[in-house]
Amino acid sequence: MKSLNGTIEATDRAQEPLHGRWYGDACGASFAMELMGERWSLHVMRELMMGPLRFSQIRANLPGISAKVLTERLEKLGQAGVVVRRMLPPPASVQVYELTPWGYEAEEVMKALGRWSVRSRAHDPTLPLTPVSAMLSLRTMLRVRADFDATVDFLFATDQFRGTLKNGELTFQRLVEPDGTADLTFAAASPNAVLPYFYGKRPLADVERDFGLSVFGDRDLADRFCSLFALPPKVS
């Protein structure tokens, strides 16, 4: 297994379980739960899906987790080869946590879980959503292949992203500072403000008035972009 600094450590799984709840089952899905199924582990991985973050940034995005538990989860995910710890080069020179290439592959797992779980009528979309969650949700619920390309900025109080729609694929990267070159910009204090527009299909003017969403750019393009996303049907 890899430690957080990326070195290989010989570890006897039976003597050092990742979280003390090994199922003794050869099923791949069962083993996946051994790797990322402990409370908060998947959330930590999710927050790192858009790139490396400092410890304080991860904790700020997950206000329900304690510093102790976050430290433990990062250490266990490091032992599993999912997360590495590294120093950013100058002038930043700060320690960050980042998913390994294998760790990033878990996005497909999260997307499949998301598409499956939101079909439940018990899912509550009004609960708080982190900015990374919102961006991953859009990547998950992109249901229609676009016949146009666009750059779309999403500006929230705690995080900012640029989405690039090209050849029917949607990718995101964090923005340090918006430069005003995007075709569209969605701005809101909370990412929950975009949900009534993208998934509820409420008229844009209504969402701006009722949920505090601001949109800059071609509003027809905004509606075309919004039309690409849809939630799967609820189970009966």
UniProtKB/TrEMBL annotation:
Q: Please, which domain of life does this record's source organism belong to? A: Bacteria
One Pfam family name is: HxlR
Q: Which InterPro entries match?
A: HTH_HxlR, WH-like_DNA-bd_sf, WH_DNA-bd_sf
Fetch the SUPFAM superfamilies from UniProt: Winged helix' DNA-binding domain (SSF46785)
PANTHER family to which the protein is assigned, alphabetical: TRANSCRIPTIONAL REGULATOR, MARR FAMILY, TRANSCRIPTIONAL REGULATORY PROTEIN
Q: What is this protein called?
A: Uncharacterized protein
